[in-house]
Amino acid sequence: MAFIELTVSNMLVWHGYDIDNKEVMEVVDGQQPAKKIVAISRVQSLTEKYVLVSAGYGRFMYWEYHDGYNVIKDRLRTAGLFIE
Length: 84
Fold this sequence. Notes:
Layout: E1 3-17, E2 23-28, E3 34-39, E4 43-46, E5 50-54, E6 60-65, H1 69-78
Antiparallel strand pairs: 1-2, 1-3, 1-6, 4-5, 5-6
């Protein structure tokens, strides 16, 4: 299994949909940036601000990351995990 180290802080937790088919999102903010080791298989997508990762019980989390989009992209490319 491959892993990547990310510096992340605030997040949005996607819990699914309510009875009216509206997304249920939990905002978790005020967190100080912290390093995390994340399994590459959990990473779903990367934007310039958030990394979307799968979580337990069918949830997803949008973590705000501080490493820089191009830095992460280059690290994935170097590890042979990025196809252009």
